[in-house]
């Protein structure tokens, strides 16, 4: 689809600086863009790319200095660019339509209007699926599970029994929802399994990445709050509670019974011990090991995780260790020389 820059600016609520009559035929990243494309610049540290890009126009933050390139000035370039991509490059996904003949559907299953189920999916007894939900090939939905409307479940997802999933949820391939929590009692060197009889409750507008595992509670619920986004290869253990609009990045691991507040961010490969609280708006940077609770509105980093600025000072001090070692070595020689002179006197 083609649009002039003026038309795009009107759609995203921005204003044009430069030639608003140029025609945009595509959208791409700032390094990959070619003539006819529009791109965006959200991070000022990449400002040097603004005049280097081959794109015909750039979406930038309002207040950006003038450029040789035509610009659309907006409050949030990332969000505006999402709208532009949706318009210029429509979603070309070919979702399943209807109920495949090879889908296996159990007894007393309630299907809403416009539900689609792909080949070889297995739907257990007493499952409820809301309107226009799409379930791809090879998925397993256990008995008694409830799934809201307009939810998209990609191929080979396993959702075990008695799970509750909200509306407008996206679950990517290979995810496992409701697997057993990791619970054992060790007696005389033998590990005896503790039954995991709870469930998982996932709120509306949640996205769950590929090959992520969310364990069912031992008792009660493992909860993922509305609007939370979980990346690929994340482990959420039993009885974890995650608030609304959290961001959990790839390979993070949250141990059992930890509680995360609203808007929490866990960086990639962050690890949390169990039974701790991470306050609202807290940020745990990548590869941090969190062994105690984190207050709200706090950024922590490192292993073990400390307040961010403390970790920065520790890291800076460690960088100076070779220089400090040489200084101490030189001082040691001077002390030895002074001691030798004192002995002669």
Describe the structure.
- With 345 residues, the chain is an alpha/beta fold.
- It folds into two domains: 3-88, MurE/MurF, N-terminal domain (Udp-n-acetylmuramoylalanyl-d-glutamate--2,6- Diaminopimelate Ligase, Chain: A, domain 1, 3-Layer(aba) Sandwich); 104-308, UDP N-Acetylglucosamine Acyltransferase, domain 1 (3 Solenoid).
- The strands form six sheets. The chain has an eleven-stranded mixed β-sheet.
- The model has no long low-confidence stretch (mean pLDDT 94).
Notable traits:
2 domains, 11-stranded mixed sheet, 39 strands, 10-stranded parallel sheet, UDP N-Acetylglucosamine Acyltransferase, domain 1, single chain, 345 residues, 29% strand, Udp-n-acetylmuramoylalanyl-d-glutamate--2,6- Diaminopimelate Ligase, Chain: A, domain 1, alpha/beta
How are the SSEs placed, and which strands pair?
Layout: E1 3-4, H1 5-12, E2 15-17, E3 23-24, E4 26-27, E5 37-41, E6 57-61, E7 71-74, H2 77-88, E8 104-105, E9 110-111, E10 116-117, E11 122-123, E12 128-129, E13 134-135, E14 140-141, E15 146-147, E16 152-153, E17 158-159, E18 164-165, E19 170-171, E20 176-179, E21 184-187, E22 190-193, E23 199-202, E24 207-208, E25 213-215, E26 221-224, E27 229-230, E28 235-236, E29 241-242, E30 247-248, E31 253-254, E32 259-260, E33 265-266, E34 271-272, E35 277-278, E36 283-284, E37 289-290, E38 299-301, E39 306-307, H3 308-319, H4 321-344
Parallel strand pairs: 4-5, 5-6, 6-7, 8-11, 9-12, 10-13, 11-14, 12-15, 13-16, 14-17, 15-18, 16-19, 17-20, 18-23, 19-24, 20-25, 23-26, 24-27, 25-28, 26-29, 27-30, 28-31, 29-32, 30-33, 31-34, 32-35, 33-36, 34-37, 36-38
Antiparallel strand pairs: 1-3, 2-7, 21-22, 38-39
């Amino acid at each position: 689809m083609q649009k002039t820059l003026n038309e795009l600016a009107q759609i995203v609520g921005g204003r044009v600086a430069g030639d608003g009559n140029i025609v945009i035929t595509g959208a791409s990243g700032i390094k990959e863009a070619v003539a006819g494309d529009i791109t965006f610049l959200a991070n000022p540290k990449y400002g040097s790319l603004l005049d280097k890009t081959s794109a015909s126009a750039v979406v930038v933050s309002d207040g950006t200095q003038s450029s040789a390139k035509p610009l659309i000035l907006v409050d949030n370039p990332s969000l505006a660019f999402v709208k532009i991509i949706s318009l210029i490059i429509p979603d070309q996904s070919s979702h399943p339509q209807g109920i495949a003949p090879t889908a296996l559907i159990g007894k007393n299953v309630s299907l809403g209007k416009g539900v689609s189920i792909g080949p070889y999916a297995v739907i257990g007894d007493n499952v409820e699926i809301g309107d226009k939900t799409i379930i791809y090939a090879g998925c397993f939905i256990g008995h008694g599970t409830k799934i809201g409307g307009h939810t998209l479940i990609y191929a080979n997802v396993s959702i075990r029994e008695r799970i509750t999933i909200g509306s407008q949820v996206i679950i990517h391939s290979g995810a496992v929802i409701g697997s057993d929590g990791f619970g054992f009692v060790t007696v005389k060197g033998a590990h005896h399994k503790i039954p995991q009889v709870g469930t998982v409750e996932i709120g509306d507008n949640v996205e769950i990445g590929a090959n992520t595992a969310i364990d069912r509670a031992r008792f009660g619920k493992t909860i993922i709050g509305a609007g939370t986004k979980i990346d690929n290869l994340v482990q959420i253990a039993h009885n974890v509670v995650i608030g609304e609009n959290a961001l959990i990045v790839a390979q993070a691991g949250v141990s059992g019974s930890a509680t995360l507040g609203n808007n929490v961010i866990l960086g990639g490969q962050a690890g949390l011990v169990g039974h701790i609280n991470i306050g609202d708006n807290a940020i745990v940077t990548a590869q941090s090991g969190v062994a105690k609770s984190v207050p709200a509105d706090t950024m922590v980093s490192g292993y073990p995780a400390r307040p961010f600025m403390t970790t920065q000072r520790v890291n800076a001090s460690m960088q100076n260790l070779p220089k400090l070692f040489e200084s101490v070595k030189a001082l040691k020689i001077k002390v030895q020389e002074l001691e030798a002179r004192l002995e002669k006197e």
